[in-house]
Amino acid sequence: MPETVLVTGGTGYVAGWCVVELLRRGHRVRTTVRGHGREQAVRDAVAGEVEPGGRLEFAVADLTADDGWAAAVEGVDRVLHVASPLGGSGGPEALIAPARDGALRVLRAAAAAGVRRVVMTSAANTASPSSYAEEGVTDETLWTDPDDPTLIPYRRSKTLAERAAWDFMAGYDGPTELTTILPGAVFGPILATDTIGSVGIVQRMLTGAMSGVPRIGLEVVDVRDVADIHLRAMTAPEAAGERFLATGEFLWMRDMARVLRAELGEQASRVATRQVPDVAVRLAARFRDPSLRDITPALGRRNRHSTAKARRLLGWQPRPAREAVVDCARSLLAHGAV
């Protein structure tokens, strides 16, 4: 039966597709924005895929403040907590504190309102070996060690936020249930050009901003499949109290570049397929481009994640990684983002 669902962070890449899929399936949707000025951007993005009619409404709330969350969850049946902090200056805590505290704000408000279930977006790297050198396949039973000093702030923030959510539920005695979704590298079509998340990798390839590709492998999952697993986890009785990995096929970035060249022809003429040696990436990160420091631990990483649980309990079936990459590129081109 159609329900009223709150989606946090409606301007975001994954959140936007969650809004679209909920509307397609007949639900009423309320989504949070950080200011009323962002409402029209969400409406415009969604309208390219589905006509919302009067079933889309907005609430103003921010992960960094308590204001607005009680009103945001009022009358809501379920919550998809997809929003993530933007980070910025201030060191690692600038990312960690908003992620952790924001998750707790959403959970507390949802529990107080008697929401039936909260589905929270985490990340596959919260269920990964701390050492990138380890190989093999891991599942949801593994937790990344947040105290590992080599973790980049993003991995630590996602791990601590999800841990805080489960710790909250451990001490909670009420009707609200929690499920967490752990996506891999999210690609696929965009709804708008202002918030594209990880899609920026494909954008940089198409524009020629990457003169070569590092030896980094990604578990590519389509944004439409990420939205789908959120909706499945939202209602499936088996999903209550569970974590679900939502990763796709493993592709080296060089393979992604080759797929783009093969499928898009002249439109991908600026895509570089030359692989940059690991030592060159490390030297550049140390002396020329500090922004590369966060990716150097992932050079050559081969650890993969199992999605057997999501397939078995939710019937989830992601599309091929190559389809996600090509559809992503075509969408960027169609939106004039290249």
From TrEMBL:
Gene3D superfamilies: NAD(P)-binding Rossmann-like Domain. SUPFAM superfamilies: NAD(P)-binding Rossmann-fold domains (SSF51735). Keywords: Oxidoreductase. Residues 5-240 form the NAD-dependent epimerase/dehydratase domain. InterPro entries: Epimerase_deHydtase, NAD(P)-bd_dom_sf, NAD(P)_dehydrat-like. Pfam families: Epimerase (PF01370). Residues 127-148 are annotated as: Disordered. Belongs to the NAD(P)-dependent epimerase/dehydratase family. Dihydroflavonol-4-reductase subfamily. This is NAD-dependent epimerase/dehydratase family protein. It comes from Actinacidiphila epipremni.
